[in-house]
Each structure stands twice: as C-alpha cells, then as structure tokens.
C-alpha cells in the first residue's frame, strides 16, 4: 500500500471539503440499524483520525489503523483517548474481536489486486464478533475512467499549494496520481514536495464476490453516503457487510 509521508502535514488542509460529519452520521445510522450502538469500532486507514474522532463522539470505543506513521502521529496528537495502531491492513492483527470495522476515503482502492483486497476482507471477518459489520466505501471504475482520468487539479492556499496530476490505465484498472505540493517554511519561502500514489478500480460485482467468498453477507449498497442504490453513474459506492455465521 502507498503511504502518505510529507503530504500528511497538509492532508487536512486540502481535504477540508470532505463532509466527515455527514459521513459519521450516515455510518452511525447503518450501525444502529444492525443494533450496534456501542462497543469497539475499528477505523481502517484512519489517516489523521478526523472521522475516528467523530465516531468516538457518537459513543463508540474507537481504534484507528494506519500504515503511515506520519498520519498516525497527527491523529494521536489530537485524541489521546483513541488507540492507534501502525499496521498494514493486509497484515491486520487485533488483540480481540470487535463490533465493527469502517473504512472511508477510498482506502481500499489502495489495495492493488483482488487477492490483497480479499486478504483484508478475511482479516476483518476474522476479528468481527458474530453479527458484526464492515462498512466501507470505494471509488468506481466510472470515476477513475470518466471523471478524473487524465485530469490535473491545482489549488493554492495562503500557506500552501498543490498540483494533482492523474493518469488512469484502463487495461490494468490502475489509477496513478502524482501530487506536487508547496509548503511555506519561512517568510516567502515555499519548499516543493512530491509523492506518487496508485489505486485500483474495482467493479461492484467483483467486491460482492470477494466479500461473500470470505463469509460476509451483504446488507446494504449505497450511492455515496446516501440512502440510494448505486448505479452506473456512481462515483463512490458504500457497502455494509455483516458476519452472520462464525465461519473462520
């Protein structure tokens, strides 16, 4: 999986348009629908912990798992009462079983093969209690191919700026983006940083198959964070999967 390093310091600055509070409310409603109103919830790919903290405010005992030490350092500095683990999701290990997993902001698109994605699903299934759920989102093929493929996005702020160059390989279904950002250090001095990340596009049917193969039962499919079924124009799809049986 790709790791955020220098970009972690400005991640929240340039992601301030993400409706985290709306997402937390939607996820909480889905958990409540499955009668999960308290207990341990694990945020996979928690980043700087914005959503993790919002879910804690909903009454859950939160844990965050993140592969980037830089991201975790920022998250831990904002909420000492949340347990954060520096782990690769493909090697997830927890001390005990939990009520739910969540994963947002297309974290699972960073898994570059169906085998890697299946491994994460299997580990989540292993550490869920019976009746526990896994709620996650992912970017669609439509988004990568038709919306952001070959696009360049640039944004300038008072204390920083970034240029986001995107390239989508339709045959391999791999989306590569290069982020060049400029951080203000002293006075008028801005230092240039660069990171390259790769994500994979998955079809909804492919993800359904992998979930069911490891034992999950799919309880809900949503167009973005809305009570609407996904369609061919969906750019982000959310899924709710449940561990009905104790298959290991």
From TrEMBL:
<protein>
    <submittedName>
        <fullName>Class I SAM-dependent methyltransferase</fullName>
    </submittedName>
</protein>
<keyword id="KW-0489">Methyltransferase</keyword>
<dbReference type="GO" id="GO:0008168">
    <property type="term" value="F:methyltransferase activity"/>
</dbReference>
<dbReference type="Pfam" id="PF13649">
    <property type="entry name" value="Methyltransf_25"/>
</dbReference>
<keyword id="KW-0808">Transferase</keyword>
<dbReference type="InterPro" id="IPR041698">
    <property type="entry name" value="Methyltransf_25"/>
</dbReference>
<dbReference type="InterPro" id="IPR029063">
    <property type="entry name" value="SAM-dependent_MTases_sf"/>
</dbReference>
<dbReference type="GO" id="GO:0032259">
    <property type="term" value="P:methylation"/>
</dbReference>
<feature type="domain" description="Methyltransferase">
    <location>
        <begin position="41"/>
        <end position="132"/>
    </location>
</feature>
